[in-house]
Backbone:
């Protein structure tokens, strides 16, 4: 899939080196797992590997379209609010008597509409950055959720609804299968279709794209709609996992999602990156959190680590992108070493951050 | 600079008109809104409520000063809520450990913490080319996590704070609440700084055209660092004032407050495209925001509407900014027609 992506970009190193970032992420992923297996004797088993993703895979659905958004050179901070709004509306409409399948459909429709609105605003008001538009819709969407449900929670879903997050098909959790399917679809869209190539083109040079007849507005709109749709799936799986919902669910999801995407090697300056990276970093961050949970590290420390990871991964990318890749081998070495030390310092900080003010 | 001023004044007088038009519109809106609130609840325009309103708006208006500079340089700062929490928490803990400490020392301490946080985001954005939203989003979480860690999840409550510390925000000088005096002092200094000093004008230059600014010898990166550092400084100050006002420092102090500040700033006509914004504008913007926050409970609208209204207000403000700008450009084009 990624071959087509690479064949057009001329200066890219070929073959093995092309995937250095992904390889590095895999190494990091393995390292996390080695550490985790020392922490708990029950860790190293196939069951753990298959069931752990059930804890974090719901937000991973947004990582897929977020990859496209960031390749476009935009950013979307409203995704957490979209999840909250569609989850709340689903619960409320179900409690009001709508059959569950229809309520689920409603959640998807609502989230897609939210995405569509984001895209429409970006299309109609090109002067405004996606940042400020999604920042305001973030308030609007979560605001609506609060207006509807105030400080109550809603739930009492039918028992089969929990199958989404907790059910198995054979030995594999349903959510894992569904995620693999979604990831495959997004990989195909991004790396083999005309639409996918246009996303890269718009991210690289929007003005040139417009002059060469690409309707950039429509591309942005389509990606926004996809983002909304996937946020809808996240809300289904999240609500199913938690069994009930409140207006403050998925608070801060945008940070998790953006951090996963950027750590996956998608450059925030747009036009660069493959979907494989974010896919690995989803599992990297997920298993890292799980392992830290095994050690009873508090949620606040996870916040700090995630914040550091986000900033560090952008830092490393900025450094590696700058020297025009004249000597790829050198670049690869420096990437790996700088990032590893950075990641370690990120981890160190959680250890002694109690003193650090 | 000379050149730029020339261009700006030559561009058209319509531009100036649009901005005054905007501000008059905003002022008119505030008046109409106040009239409606007054009709619904006669207590709204009582002297004590106006005092309350101004006191409650003071912290917001202090922060819009910093946010205005950040947005003028085309940036954004999402970390200020967390900066406020961290600086408030550390100063409150210091005060509870040694109650004899002077309130002004607490202020200085909070400002130093805020400055440090602002310098970090400034360096990341200016010298490491990280997008402002990414850098400050990361920092927002780091600082929030640090606040929880430092407080170990506990609150610092009123009885742990010295009377002097609490009087920082609740005391009065010449019959006026200290918070209002703080805000007035900051606005006087700031409007001199941004309008009269070279450095202040450089901020506009960097915002309206970074490349040109660099070509005429402005050290762009330093300006951007300065802007975030000042934002941090003000957020640190606001954190201390906040904690002293509510007499309680918590891990979740000022969560999401950055959005209020951004809303008030763009509402005041500071363009997110950079390079544009006036002191009188942000003053009106934060007043409108303060009125909304103050009056909604008075006319029995549930607080759960607040976030929605805030979002709609930002959206309306940025869209009306764009529409006004477009209209303005159309007028300019027409003038050039032969």
Residues:
């Amino acid at each position: 899939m990624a071959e087509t992506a690479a064949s057009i970009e001329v200066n890219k190193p070929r073959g093995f080196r092309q995937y250095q970032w992904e390889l590095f992420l895999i190494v990091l992923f393995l390292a996390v797992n080695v550490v985790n297996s020392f922490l708990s004797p029950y860790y190293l088993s196939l069951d753990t590997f298959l069931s752990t993703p059930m804890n974090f895979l719901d937000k991973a659905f947004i990582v897929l379209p977020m990859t496209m958004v960031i390749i476009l050179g935009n950013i979307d901070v409203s995704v957490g609010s979209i999840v909250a709004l569609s989850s709340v509306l689903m619960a409320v409409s179900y409690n009001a008597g709508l059959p569950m399948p229809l309520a689920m459909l409603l959640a998807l429709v609502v989230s897609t509409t939210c995405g569509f609105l984001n895209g429409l605003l970006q299309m109609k008001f090109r002067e405004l950055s996606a940042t400020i538009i999604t920042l305001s819709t973030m308030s609007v969407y979560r605001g609506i959720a609060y207006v509807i449900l105030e400080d109550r929670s809603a739930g009492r879903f039918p028992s089969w609804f929990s199958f989404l997050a907790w059910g198995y098909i054979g030995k594999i959790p349903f959510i894992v299968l569904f995620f693999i399917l979604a990831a495959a679809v997004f990989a195909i869209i991004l790396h083999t279709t005309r639409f996918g190539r246009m996303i890269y083109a718009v991210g690289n040079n929007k003005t040139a794209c417009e002059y060469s007849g690409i309707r950039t507005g429509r591309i942005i709109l389509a990606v926004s709609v996809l983002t909304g749709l996937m946020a809808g799936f996240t809300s289904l799986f999240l609500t199913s996992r938690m069994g009930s919902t409140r207006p403050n669910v998925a608070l801060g999801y945008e940070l998790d999602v953006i951090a996963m995407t950027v750590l996956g090697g998608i450059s925030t300056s747009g036009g660069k990156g493959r979907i494989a990276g974010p896919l690995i970093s989803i599992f990297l961050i997920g298993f890292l959190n799980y392992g830290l949970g095994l050690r009873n590290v508090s949620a606040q420390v996870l916040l700090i680590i995630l914040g550091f990871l986000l900033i560090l991964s952008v830092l490393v990318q900025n450094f590696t992108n700058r020297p025009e890749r004249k000597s790829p081998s050198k670049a690869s070495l420096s990437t790996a070493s700088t990032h590893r030390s950075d990641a370690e310092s990120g981890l160190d900080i959680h250890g002694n951050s109690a003193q650090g003010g | 600079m000379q050149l730029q001023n020339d261009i700006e004044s030559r561009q058209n007088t319509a531009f100036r008109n649009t901005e005054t038009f905007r501000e008059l519109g905003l002022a008119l809106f505030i008046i109409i809104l106040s009239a409606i609130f007054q009709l619904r609840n006669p207590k709204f325009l009582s002297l004590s409520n106006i005092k309350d309103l101004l006191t409650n708006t003071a912290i917001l208006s202090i922060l819009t000063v910093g946010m205005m500079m950040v947005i003028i340089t085309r940036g954004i700062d999402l970390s200020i809520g967390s900066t406020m929490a961290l600086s408030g928490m550390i100063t409150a803990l210091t005060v509870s450990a040694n109650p004899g400490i002077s309130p002004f020392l607490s202020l200085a301490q909070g400002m130093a913490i805020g400055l440090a946080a602002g310098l970090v985001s400034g360096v990341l954005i200016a010298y490491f080319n990280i997008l402002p939203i990414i850098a400050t989003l990361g920092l927002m979480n780091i600082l929030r996590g640090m606040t929880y860690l430092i407080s170990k999840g506990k609150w610092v409550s009123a009885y742990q704070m010295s009377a002097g510390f609490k009087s920082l925000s609740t005391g009065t000088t010449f019959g006026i609440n200290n918070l209002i005096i703080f805000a007035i002092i900051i606005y006087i200094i700031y409007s001199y700084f941004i309008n009269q000093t070279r450095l202040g004008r450089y901020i506009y230059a960097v915002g309206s055209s970074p490349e040109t600014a660099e070509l005429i010898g402005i050290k762009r990166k330093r300006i951007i660092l300065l802007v975030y550092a000042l934002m941090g400084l003000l957020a640190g100050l606001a954190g201390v004032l906040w904690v002293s006002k509510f007499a309680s420092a918590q891990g979740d102090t000022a969560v999401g407050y950055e959005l209020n500040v951004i809303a008030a700033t763009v509402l005041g006509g500071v363009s997110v495209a950079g390079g544009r914004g006036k002191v009188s504008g942000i003053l009106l913007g934060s007043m409108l925001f303060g009125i909304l926050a103050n009056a909604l409970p008075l006319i029995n609208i549930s607080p759960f509407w607040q976030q929605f209204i805030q979002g709609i207000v930002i959206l309306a403000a940025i869209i009306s900014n764009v529409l006004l700008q477009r209209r303005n450009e159309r007028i300019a084009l027409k003038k050039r027609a032969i």
Chain A has one domain: 2-350. The longest helix of chain A spans residues 216-242. Chain A touches chain B through 50 residues (CB under 8 Å).
